[in-house]
Amino acid sequence: MMLIELPCPIPYVSRMNHDNYPNDYIRGILQSVKTIALVGASQNPARPSWIVMKYLLERGYDVIPINPGIAGHELLGKKVYGSLAEVPGPIDMVEIFRNSEAAGPITDEALALQPLPKVIWMQLSVRNDEAAARAEAKGIQVVMDRCPKIEFGRLSGEISWQGVNSRMLSAKKPVLSGKGFQKLSLNRPR
Amino acid sequence: MTDRLPGFNTLAIHAGAAPDAATGARATPIYQTTSFVFDDVDHAASLFGLQAFGNIYSRIGNPTCAVLEERIAALEGGTAALAVASGHAAEFLVFHTLLQPGDEFVAAKQLYGGSINQFNHSYKNFGWNVAWANADDPASFEAAITPKTKAIFVESIANPGGVIVDLQAIAAIAKKHRIPFIVDNTMATPYLIKPFEHGADIIVHSATKFLGGHGNSIGGLIVDGGSFNFAGDDRYPMLSKPRPEYGGMVLGETFGNFGFAIACRVLGLRDLGPALSPFNAFLIINGIETLPLRMQRHSDNALAVAEHLAQHSKISWVSYPGLRSDRYHNLAQQYCPKGAGAVFTFGLKGGYEAGVKLVSNLKLFSHLANIGDTRSLVIHPASTTHRQLTDEQKTQAGAGPEVVRLSIGIEDKEDLIDDLNQALDAA
């Protein structure tokens, strides 16, 4: 379990330990990506994929929903595509909201993109180590079995409002983000 | 990688409590407000739909209470926690989240008398049926399990008799039958025992006692261990079924390993309403900062007093697991090697009358119905906390007529021993 943040002197190697991600690894990904293709986007506001898409849009990410069943429709104001290959322009991160088995072929679709995505992120409860190895062999950063909303909330401090154990200690002030007082930034001093 | 787990003392001071984002206040501010302004209409909708983290209304969540929640979650090693109005409210919301009318749960009969009343009487109104087991006999829990059993409940150190419960043995039974194992950790606190390390799935606290520690605030806490997978388990519809209150959201799926704590908040606390006052949360947070220091002194003092009383001519027995001769000493060595807590009972040779006299003769010990204060406390359970139980239940719960319970404070132990000596001489 990770709790306090200490500097990490070891440069990240290409193969991650997928049982225990350093906070800096996750934060680095969430701070660097801009365009996120969300595979398995849902029109149902009660589904986690819808909630995560809305949250990421509100945090300024350009989220592109992928779902062949509703291709061509609009979802949260964004055009839905039927596959990764149909998305015009580069994708920084592919977020996989499908089961662990389906994550294999989706990863391969992502590896066929030009340019390659920088990150492949498999949602909480989704893990496919073979697919992860194929992606990492091409220099792509992989996160598995994590939710980007939870990780953003944890690293920014927002999740603490819900009594969740963020596993972060700090004597530095969290940084407000956007208007109002109910959004926090990833750019908090460390 | 190099992220290291901070120690218990550090967590007791820092977990959950960064400086205030708006003002930089270093101590946790008391957010004494009912409600919170939304950033905009869409933000309000996101909050009500559980789609964003944030604050709406202090019955459901409050930033001061949230610091307390994260603090106890970190100290217990859980995924999340929920602060509520009292320890009883904590138990109520846990069972409300797990049980449907007609369901059963198995509980140790060695419990705080208030919990025994709650289970035997109030819960019957909801159709929640308790089956009693013997904390000294883990097999009795397995024998009481039926297809309707939805939870197992014990105290880690049972009030008032200093019973140390073999958590690992009962956890193994709970795991075998895929039933959540709930541990009331009030008497031990995570400083002495960390039930999640022994197989508990959910922890409840009366924060009124040692966590707050100064006898000034009623409060309760629920901690989610994140270890029980409720998703897809039809026996727990609050977590596994689409919730009409939230547009069909499945809480156990959406919130993963802290879904139980969220369900207690957004279904239990929201609808049943036993919210903790932010002011009480503030006092409990302050108390927790010194929990490690206090619990060690409480335990050290209690051992010194128990050793003294065990030699006293007017006392027939002392039940304190810290004593080498105690029947629970081996379990205490296993589960709480730092100390066996502050609370214990002893029997007076003079019986009921001697108990009444002792209580009135004491000068430093306060006669009242609480435990876990900085001050030393005394009570005669048979006539107070356990009076509503039958004689048989009293004896089973370790609260017979000759029994006196002490909650040893953090004063100088010599003064406590002197006070007991003079009161016993006069009794």
Automatic annotation (TrEMBL), chain B:
Gene Ontology biological-process annotations: cysteine biosynthetic process from serine; L-homocysteine biosynthetic process; transsulfuration
GO MF annotation, one: cysteine synthase activity
EC number: 2.5.1.49
PROSITE patterns per the UniProt record, alphabetical: CYS_MET_METAB_PP
Sites of N6-(pyridoxal phosphate)lysine modification: 209
InterPro entries per UniProt: Cys/Met-Metab_PyrdxlP-dep_enz, Cys_met_metab_PP, OAc-hSer/O-AcSer_sulfhydrylase, PyrdxlP-dep_Trfase, PyrdxlP-dep_Trfase_major, PyrdxlP-dep_Trfase_small
Domain of life: Bacteria
Record keyword Translocase present: no
Keyword terms: Pyridoxal phosphate, Transferase
GO cellular component: cytoplasm
Presence of keyword Transferase: yes
Top enzyme class: transferase
Cofactor(s), names only, from the UniProt record: pyridoxal 5'-phosphate
Family: Belongs to the trans-sulfuration enzymes family.
UniProt-listed NCBIfam families: OAH_OAS_sulfhy, PRK05994.1
Entry protein name: O-acetylhomoserine aminocarboxypropyltransferase
